[in-house]
Structure formats: C-alpha cells, structure tokens
C-alpha cells in the first residue's frame, strides 16, 4: 500500500497557475513516487522537509511515514520556491 497525497492551499494555487503540460508532469511524478517517496525526494537542510525535482520546478513536501502521507506544501520554479521556507 502506497502513500496518499494531500495538497496545501498554496500548492493547489501554484499548480493551477502553472501551464498544463508542466502541471501534468508534476502530478504524474507525484503519483509515481507514492510507493517509495524517500527514493526520489531529497531532504532539505535545516528544515524537516523534502524536495522533489521535476524539470525546472520543485515540489516542497513533508513525508509523514507514520500516517503514510505525502503533504505537498509548495510547488514552484526552482529559483523561487525555496524562499520563505
């Protein structure tokens, strides 16, 4: 059984503002990592969060092993997504 995915309001808004091709790539990649998110995600330094690289975009997420949940916090271009984390 894989992890479930939940999006924050900020992540939902970001995903809806990205072009359809990129948004589809992001959504497909998130579906792909549901079985083993730690295999693809990179731990961020200084905060208990993870980053997933999808082209020029990054998905900032919290992986909750005890609840089998991937909580997507932010989605954005690699140059701006790490601000205010």
Quick overview:
Helices cover 31% and strands 33% of the residues.
From the alpha-carbon coordinates, what is the Rg to the nearest angstrom?
Answer: 12 Å
- What fold name goes in the CATH topology slot? YaeB-like fold
Q: Treating each run of at least 4 consecutive H or I residues as one helix, how many helices?
A: 3
CATH A-level architecture: 2-Layer Sandwich
**CATH H-level superfamily:** RelE-like
What can you see in these coordinates?
The N and C termini lie far apart (30 Å). The chain has one domain (4-68): RelE-like (YaeB-like fold), CATH 3.30.2310. Strand 3 and strand 4 form a beta hairpin. The model has no long low-confidence stretch (mean pLDDT 95). The protein has helices spanning 9-17, 20-32, 37-40; strands at residues 4-7, 42-43, 50-54, 57-64, 69-77. By secondary structure, it is an alpha+beta fold. A five-stranded mixed beta sheet has the order 1-5-4-3-2.
Annotation keywords:
85 residues; alpha+beta; YaeB-like fold; 3 helices; 5 strands; globular
């Amino acid at each position: 059984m894989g992890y479930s995915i939940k999006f924050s309001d900020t992540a939902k808004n970001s995903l809806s503002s990205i072009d359809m091709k990129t948004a589809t790539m992001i959504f497909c990649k998130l579906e792909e990592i549901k079985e083993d998110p730690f295999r693809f995600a990179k731990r961020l330094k200084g905060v208990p969060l993870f980053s997933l690289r999808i082209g020029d975009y990054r998905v900032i997420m919290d992986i909750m092993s005890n609840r089998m949940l991937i909580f997507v916090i932010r989605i954005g271009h690699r140059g701006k997504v790490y601000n205010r984390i």
